[in-house]
Amino acid sequence: MKMTFRWYGEKDSIPLSYIRQIPGMSGVVTAVYDIPVGEVWPMDRILRLKEFCDQNGLEMEVIESVPVHEDIKLGRPTRDRYIANYAQTIENLGRVGVKCICYNFMPVFDWLRTNLKTEAEDGSNSLSYRHDELMALDPHDLHLPGWDESYTPGELNALLDAYAGMTHEKLFENLVYFLEGIMPACDAAGINMAIHPDDPPWDMFGLPRIITCDESYDKLFSAVPNPHNGITLCTGSLGAGRDNDLVAMAKKLAPRSYFVHLRQIKLSGELDFCECGHLTEKGSLDMYGIVRALVEAGFEGYVRPDHGRNIWGEDGKPGYGLYDRALGACYLYGLFEAVEKSTK
Ligand code: CS2
Ligand code: MN
Questions:
Q1: Catalytic residue selected from 69, 228, 261, 278
Q2: For the residues 323-333, what does the mean pLDDT come to?
Q3: Quick one: pLDDT at residue 33?
Q4: 194 pairs with which residues across the strands?
Q5: Please, what are the domains in the chain?
Q6: In this model, does residue 16 exceed pLDDT 80?
């Protein structure tokens, strides 16, 4: 296992010099953030990022994310150009030693929450989701904190219209088309693709979501068996799905899990949840059981603590402050050490 930490590049308020001081850190998970989605990441930008990491003694073997252009998800004729660009970015990243690329295939929106600062009894705060509140929102006029607000209202409406009639089957076919298009570049570069599950793992505003449960992965691997077609096992995303048994999934999916996001959530009601500290006793997910299942199944990929709370007066980027993720990293590192030593 290699423990990593997400770093939002030069604009991140958390310096790499702090990240390297977190015990057990092998590297950071980062990205080039200011190239428009769909365009090739130029070599000089990638090298600059890599140089920052090198200077701070941190590896840059995982990229999160190289975003997928909506035209690819929609299956528009323009997708071939974007897929070729994506393949070129893979080639460029391979040249600097990147081994794994995290991406997602959610239409229009990435993760969705209804409150970014839900107060807990101990005075900390974190992200939470209330299904009734989300359903009351109008996707055409959405003002949700945290989600990608780079669309203008006009663009957003046009995009939502373009998805009208999109089915799960069609979206899945478009994912397969994309993967088949980039697998040769992954083979050549030695890079594993790691699809992030949908968060939360159910349809949103009538938009289909297709990476939500165990069967999604059976379908994914049988459609594209190439071993470079892998996954990011995100416990907090999948864990909101009440039928998902994360310990069983970790065991089964370990060989294709090149990247693992360990995020803890506390479930309530039928679909609601609140993110919380990483410890097993703090939430609904058995972190110890998940780590044990991964280790026993021979997992050797990258791990990072996913989404921390705001603690100690920090007012961090939602889910991505320093303190609680650092605590999470140490706790998770300890779980891995104990399980690895006891299973030898
Ligand atoms: C991440 C996702 O912050 C998060 O919730 O787990 O945003 C993730 O980076 C993307 O979905 C992966 O493409
Ligand atoms: Mn995640």
A1: 261
A2: 98
A3: 95
A4: 102, 230
A5: 2-342 (3.20.20.150)
A6: yes
Per DSSP, helices labelled H in 143-268 are: 153-162, 168-189, 214-223, 235-239, 246-253
pLDDT single digits (tens) 184-232 = 999 999 999 999 999 999 999 999 999 999 999 999 999 999 999 999 9
Question: Looking at the CA of 304, which ligand is closest?
Answer: 2
What is the atom index within ligand 1 of the atom nearest the CA of 65? 13
Residues with CB under 5 Å of ion ligand 2 are: 234, 261, 306
- Alpha-carbon distance of 208 to 165, in angstroms, equals 10
* Most informative mutation of 28, 65, 196, 210 for ligand 1 (most atoms within 8 A of CB): 196
CA dihedral 279→284→290→291, nearest 10 degrees, is 0
- What is the Cα–Cα distance from 76 to 181, expressed in whole angstroms? 14
Q: Which helix (H) or strand (E) holds 90?
A: helix 79-95
Rounded to whole angstroms, how far apart are CA atoms 28 and 259? 12
- Closest ligand to C-alpha of residue 29 is 1
What sign does the CA torsion over 230, 326, 240, 31 have? negative
Distance from Cα 104 to the centre of ligand 1, integer Å: 8
* Surface-to-core class of residue 295, CB atoms within 10 Å of its CB (0-12 exposed, 13-18 middle, 19+ buried): buried
- Report how far ligand 1's centroid is from the alpha carbon of 329 (Å): 17
Contact present, 340 and 303 (Cβ < 8 Å): no
Instruction: Assess whether the C-beta atom of 64 lies below 6 angstroms from ligand 1.
Output: yes
Give the rounded distance of the alpha carbon of 333 from its chain centre: 19
- The DSSP bridge pattern shows strands 100-103 and 192-195 to be parallel
Give pLDDT, residue 143: 74
At 244-270, the pLDDT tens digits run 999 999 999 999 999 999 999 999 999
Residue with tokens 């200077």: 55
